[in-house]
Amino acid sequence: MTILQIDLETYSSVDLLKSGVYRYVESPDFEILLFAYAYDDEPVTVIDLTAFEDVPDFILHDLLDPFVTKAAFNANFERTCIAKHFGIKCNPHMWQCTSVWALTLGLPGSLGKVAEILKLEDKKDTKGKGLIKYFSVPCKPTKVNGQRTRNYPHHDPEKWEEYKAYNKQDVVVEREVRLKLERFPVPSHEWKLWALDQQINDRGVRLDPVLIEHAIACAVQYTERLVDEAHQLTGLENPNSLTQIKGWLSDHGLETPDGLGKEFMPVLLNAAPCEDTKRLLELRQEMGKTSNSKYDAMSRSLCSDDRVRGILQYCGANRTWRWAGRNVQMQNLPQNHIPDLDLARSILRSGDYEFLEMMYGAPPFVLSQLVRTALIPSEGNRFIVSDYAAIEARVIAWLADEMWVLEVFKGHGKIYEATAARMFNTPFETIVKGHDNYRLRAPGKVATLACGFGGGAAALSKMDKNKEIPEDQYDRLVKQWRNANPNIRKLWYAAEEAAMQAVQEKTTVKLAHGVQYRYEGGILFADLPSGHSLAYPQPEIKLDTKFGKDGLTFYALDERNNWMPQRTWGGTLVENLVQAIARDCLAVGLTRTEAAGYRTAIHVHDEIVADVPIGFGSVEEMSDLMGQPIDWAPGLPLKAAGFECDFYQKD
């Protein structure tokens, strides 16, 4: 198979990072400046399109040839730019993404970082950022360039030659990365899944621009009201200034910490010496809730056909291969709890913000409730939304052979009630509404959600969002849950022992249900029953001083984007396994539903949102496709359920 490695340098006045590549290429001034390529191990050629050099016909032919694999680092960018510039379809089945390949091996998704970690002889040119800023994005008019808003090659020929060299070097480095990664190939079925992911991203999801416009305007108007009230109250020039607010509060008898974050607010409100200081704190607290980031991101990324594209990142969470969100972050949307969503969104779309506030309270609350509803079906379509029920609880029980849990899921499925009955040694049939034992359902639910991956009292406290359980009961509930699920508890330690043995002996150790830990080439792999593997680079066994015993470490990016050793243990290893297998179940569901004509608009965690014509298919059929047995997971009881809607929402 011939490999055609490609790297582009482009221009557009649209901000690529803020708006995404699909909106980026829609700009009238979008163009490809440089087109660098190399076949296999041949020399790299750079085509300067600004100098009227043409892309050769054989390249244009090979872009459409299924027997030539096109490769790029972040291939979604190259695919989308080439498709727009040349007016052709870049079939993702003919492409491979080296960035995705790196992610599958637990490596970063940036070329420079990967080249550094792999210790390549060829390094990414560090001048790149400055050259991109000079030639590929608009420039601010200065005394030097007058009213010029864009730099062309003739404005600095020396820099332009450097840019061409940078473009060429990227192909060299990308090819070296790909050659290094070839030892650990991505399974063919995962490349097919990536191609489906690209098709879903290309397709996008339709948004309601009227609702988005009014949501932004409503939030701005409300924020202006808050700022105006704060100004009237304090006389401050800028009531949004943290320094000015802290100074005013200090002058009025209230010393505050460095920040005024929400974690400090309850204490500060209690300590407020007068009504004015209390009101200013309340205004500050309310101003912190008026973030409009989701609606702003939607507006920035909206394409000309009212669709947003490219919001899903395949293998974005590379420890589990789960998808991550991009541009419009769909993975952490607030749930909707108001009963009359249709009325609320209609009022917002009408622009009657005063009536909206009168009906539903402060705008930040109702706007957060309506974020999901900005996603709407295509004309003449409706959404079918279906998600897997308790997927992680099912997978961990299957992996651990916790048979009583599997029997619950094969039967009535009421895992919270069944868990409570087992934890408290209480008849299952008494945990029903109206019976005194129904109070036990809450701790059964919280423990089920918090304890599966070794979580203790802190995990229970975090999961007990409604504070239905006295804190002094947390430790006892953890023990009761673990006693009720002994095989899951054993799985944590078995996973840790297997992983450490694989590293120590540089061997393969079987765990359960097709899962095994394997050490190869300086990487610890967790082979999954679906046929792909999680990767833990540079694993080592080191003394864990906190527990006074040896533990497992591996390398990953820390919060400062540094490649550093991270410590893990059996509970986290099992969490990775469970989330990865749940992801693989979703992948099977996506493949099945797409094949049956249920076109995916988006998918979030364990939920698929299909955009289908009115009259086509049904909730029952789509849910049944998702819930059918999977050949690589015999005995795993899957179930999906859903609903239809005219705008996206939580049931």
UniProtKB/TrEMBL annotation:
Species for this entry: Paenibacillus agricola
Q: What is this protein called?
A: DNA-directed DNA polymerase
Give the coiled coil ranges: none
Q: Which UniProt keywords apply?
A: DNA replication
Q: EC number(s) for this protein? A: 2.7.7.7
- Membrane-traversing stretches: none
Catalyzed reactions per annotation: DNA(n) + a 2'-deoxyribonucleoside 5'-triphosphate = DNA(n+1) + diphosphate
A Pfam match is DNA_pol_A
What InterPro entries does its record include? DNA-dir_DNA_pol_A_palm_dom, DNA/RNA_pol_sf, DNA_polymerase_A, RNaseH-like_sf
- The signal peptide here is none
> What positions does the domain DNA-directed DNA polymerase family A palm occupy?
368-616
- Going by the record, the broad EC class of this enzyme is transferase
